[in-house]
Amino acid sequence: MRTLDDLVAEGVQGRTVLVRSDLNVPLDEDRNITDDGRIRASVPTINALYEGGARVVVTAHLGRPKNGPDEKLSLAPVAQRLGELLGAPVRLVELGGAGGLPTLPSMAAGDVVLLENIRFDARETSKDDAERGAFADELVALVGEDAAFVSDGFGVVHRKQASVYDVAQRLDPYAGGLVLSEVEVLRTLTGNPERPYAVVLGGSKVSDKLAVIEALLPKVDTLLVGGGMCFTFLAARGHGVGSSLLEADQVEVCRTLLESGKIVLPTDVVVADAFSADANTKTVSVEEIADGWMGLDIGPDSVREFAARIADAKTIFWNGPMGVFELAPFAEGTRGVAQAIADGDAFSVVGGGDSAAAVRALGIAEDAFSHISTGGGASLEFLEGATLPGVAVLEENA
Predict the structure, then answer these.
(1) Cis bond upstream, residue 196 (ω within 30)
(2) Distance CA 72, CA 121 (A)
(3) Euclidean distance between CA atoms 108 and 15, whole angstroms
(4) Coil, strand, or helix at residue 92?
């Protein structure tokens, strides 16, 4: 596939470049950004075009709008933060609604504008190829047929969407630095990684990670399981799990997966009598989870065991927190495992989403990891062996 470096080498001075970024960041109730990691990750690609003198038009989404424009999902805070990081103003351009896209404001070389939430137009995510294509045609008309397209939103390349897939069929497409680095890192994990190869999986549900577990088990040496999903595995081992999260319909599947001998489960957990930072808590063996108590973190013995396995590994992929790290009493499992990965010298990949947010929230140095992904779902689908439409289209139109 052609890359951002190829485009910059060709020269972008005065040329319009349409960039698809992933700026889908969390906001609090006052619409303040609580984690700007994805915006910061998008800056190098946008900055390279900005410094090259391109007229940069960025598309992105925020959340999942259901009925057109929604002020709560406006990209206005994102435009402001992106401008601060670039050191240059970023104008937010409203979409045109039912009447189509607006005309761009007058742009000089080096200007950057951000289109309002691209999902405010339902055609962006339509399953109908013709509807998505019509929207893509409008985006092309907005920037001009001689514009280039840079795909840099790895968090959306697993989706066939107008600003990700269809536009790449209509303009000269290039892979942005972020997409390129993500693909290279994930190909390392799926190719011939240095061994021992350890995977750490957390999060709430086994069903969300089942496909990636089945894909990775034959390839890894150790699979460490924490988070809410561990309780379904513990139930498969015959343990009572109290009021902990349990997917009863996945117990038999977990029992089969455990036959691999590669899965390591917690030996102790932090339990609480309510899902609250103010709940009564205690640390118990996984054999002693009482009725009415719920496991919300892995315990200190489990952290030590997981850390020992991590210390032996040469390649590590981590996706999903070990507990409800957002609540202080249940953050130590995630902190301990994350710090163990950070302290080692293995090739380490943090699989985006909540894991990346946990690294930043817990104050662990991001540069202690080899790579922090910006696309949790896309990363998992890549590791499952799925074709990512937003990557395939770049390869097909190189």
Answers:
(1) yes
(2) 15
(3) 10
(4) strand
Decide if 43 contacts 86 (C-beta within 8 A): yes
Residue 100 pLDDT grade (very low, low, confident, very high; cuts 50, 70, 90):
low
State how far the Cα of 221 lies from the Cα of 216, in Å rounded to an integer. 10
Instruction: Report residue 287 as tokens.
Output: 């054999």
pLDDT tens string 166-182: 999 999 999 999 999 99
Beta carbons of 281 and 329 less than 8 angstroms apart: yes
In the set 320, 353, 376, 390, the catalytic residue is: 353
Burial letters 74-98, b for 16+ CB under 10 A, else e: bbebbbebbbeebeeebebbebeee
Instruction: Spell out the SS3 assignment of 330-373.
Output: HCHHHHHHHHHHHHCCCEEEECCHHHHHHHHHCCCCHHHCCEEC
Would you state the structure tokens that stand for residue 79, as one six-digit string?
């435009």
Contacts of 99 (CB under 8 A, 6+ apart): none
Q: Which amino acid is at 167?
A: V
Q: What is the pLDDT of residue 86?
A: 95
Among 53, 110, 144, 377, the active-site one is: 377
Annotation says 205 is catalytic: yes
Residues in the chain: 398
- From 38, 160, 209, 309, active-site residue: 38
Residues facing residue 47 across a β-bridge: none
Farthest-apart Cα atoms in the chain, separation:
67
- Could you say which of 40, 159, 205, 360 is catalytic? 205
* Dihedral sign of CA atoms 352, 354, 359, 363 in order: positive
Could you give the angle at the alpha carbon of 364 between the alpha carbons of 362 and 370, nearest 5°? 135
Could you count the other beta carbons within 10 Å of the beta carbon of residue 152?
27
Q: Note if 377 is an active site residue.
A: yes
